[in-house]
Amino acid sequence: MTAWPPNSSNTIVKFADDTTVIGLITGDDETAYREEVRALTSWCQDNNLHLNVSKTKELIVGLQEEAERGTRPLSINGTTVERVNSFRLRRLNMDSRILCSFYRCTIERILTGCITACLYSSCTALNRKALQRVVKAAQHITRTELPSMEDLYTQRCRKKATKIIKDPSHPATNCSACCRLADGSAAFEP
Q1: Whole domain around residue 35: which residue ranges?
Q2: pTM, 2 dp
Q3: Which partner for 144 in 4, 99, 100, 117 could form a disulfide, CB atoms 3.0-4.6 Å apart?
Q4: Origin, by domain of life (predicted)?
């Protein structure tokens, strides 16, 4: 297995005869991802390797409206790649750093995308346990210690509070008494 980041927003994972391209698409700019697929296709052709496009799948991970918004179908050698809504992620002896990166860029981003806005502290205990089960499953697969949902919530609140404190024009600059974390402690110290 080898992995290398030809572009900092992409990762290529090779295991036996399977290859996975993981691309981070930001701001609707798919250029680096699509160029990576083109380069991989060209490399396969140059090295007399057959790329079986009928077995190739594309999965876009993100919020539903993001996933459906303006992403044109991927094409390899004139054949459109099938886009799927899900697939089972298996470890396949992948390096834990790659799995951890995939988790942080996709799953954790979805879980925490609006964690401070939807007020994790007001979730029921059952909902918190359900969210934490996702983190524990990812820890098992990646064999990496990941921050708990509670820790992520605390980090996000502190980061947001620090931004507010540094912005003297923000109306909440002087409201440290009303900013509380899930455990009741102050989100920041003035």
Answers
A1: 2-84
A2: 0.50
A3: 100
A4: Eukaryota
User: Does residue 21 lie in a domain region?
Assistant: yes
Tokens representing residue 158 in the block: 């502190």
Distance separating alpha carbons of residues 136 and 129, to the nearest angstrom: 10
Any domain includes 143: no
- In whole angstroms, what is the distance from residue 86 CA to residue 83 CA? 9
8-64 pLDDT, tens digit each: 777 777 766 778 787 877 777 888 888 889 988 998 899 998 888 988 888 887 655
Encoding tokens for residue 184? 């009741």
Is 30 part of a structural domain of the chain? yes
Distance CA 63, CA 175 (A): 32
Element (H, E) at 88: none
Cα dist from 155 to 39, 100, 108, 115, whole Å: 39, 19, 13, 10
Task: Name the strand (E) or helix (H) holding 75.
Answer: strand 75-76
The amino acid occupying position 168 is: P
pLDDT at 98 over 60: yes
141 contacts 91 by C-beta, under 8 angstroms: yes
Residue 159 lies in a domain: no
Q: For 103-143, what is each residue's pLDDT tens digit?
A: 877 777 777 766 665 667 778 888 888 888 888 888 888 88
Q: Which tokens go with 31?
A: 């250029």
- Classify 76 in phi/psi space as left (phi over 0), alpha (psi -120 to 50) or beta: beta
